[in-house]
Fold:
Amino acid sequence: MVYFGEYRGKIDKQGRVVIPSKLRELIKKDGSNNVYITKGIEKCLFVFTEKIFEEQGEKINDLSFTKGNPRIFTRFFYSGSYKEKIDGQGRILIPSKLIEYAEIKENIVIIGAGKRIEIWDEKNWENFYNQHFSFYGEISEKIFE
Structure:
């Protein structure tokens, strides 16, 4: 399953976000209406299906807990993870701690990012995009060498 595209939306006062229908269809194909939401990198949120979250968990659990960086990453990843169900209107509830972490105000951007979905505050996404897009070609050359 590959998630792709960029979608604009809003978070409501209760902390709910509508997952775009194209992304919901892909989530359902993965076998569940449940998703895991966790702290992402660069002030965004990662959204995983149950299947992908379990796959990521296996990789994380294989890291050595005796080494500092893997131990720290594991703590932050799991302590910031929440299981949520997509409701009948296609919404998920974003816990307030995650809203605060990602600095989400009202306008959001939801992007497909391969095996995961990311949720960004609109201004943070625009800043990130504008800061890094000029390096896109250079980065692609390095990772596809």
Residues 39 and 67 are 21 Å apart (CA to CA). The two ends are 25 Å apart (CA to CA). The chain has a mean pLDDT of 92.
